[in-house]
Amino acid sequence: MGQGVYTAADASKILRIPYPKAKYWFKYYAKNKLHDSIGHQYYFEVKDIVAVNFFTLIEMYVFFSLKEKGIKTSKIMKAHKSMANHLKTPYPFAQKDIYVNNLKLLFGDETLLLSADEKLQSVIAGILLPFCDKVQFTNQKLAHKYYPLGQNKAVVVTPDNQFGQPIIEGTNILTATIYAFHKGGESIDSISRLYDISPENVRDAIEYHIAA
Description:
The protein is mostly helical. The chain folds into two domains: 8-144, no CATH class; 155-211, Orthogonal Bundle (Arc Repressor Mutant, subunit A), CATH 1.10.10.10. The chain contains eight helices and eight strands. It has a two-stranded antiparallel sheet. Strands 3-4 form a two-stranded antiparallel ribbon. A two-stranded antiparallel ribbon has the order 5-6.
């Protein structure tokens, strides 16, 4: 299974996060705070450019969303560390075993491992429930595919294809390539015939890039 390669610019586009904030997160969280908390290296360098893998990309989305909702960094870090210890993974926010039941935030299979305070559990619920509609998990319960437009659309981000860049599901076709043809004046039908994909797939790729 691939790991994916994502720079701050990639994360900004895929997760719809302003680039300056994505760059800040890479510098202060991926490179420092998360490593200091868990002891795991969450980044690597490609030609002197800091990059992260697919799991860290998912971690970034949840972490950033919590912070944007007003949850203090100290609370997020404490919850992240506790979850990492209980779930035995450096990527607890990328785990399927996170769900909300009866107003309690639960981690694990039918066992209450950590109950967050009321504000934190409410915010996490509001973030994770809709976010899970965009994520597909492996049998090992790790995030494996991310659908930026939702699972009813063809655009998917998965570390198994094209180093994790957005593609048309079931193919190895980059959505950026389709969008470039569209911007160049090619019709949806001609692009559809050229790549042997449906017009709906082409429209999904165009929608993804226009929304970015």
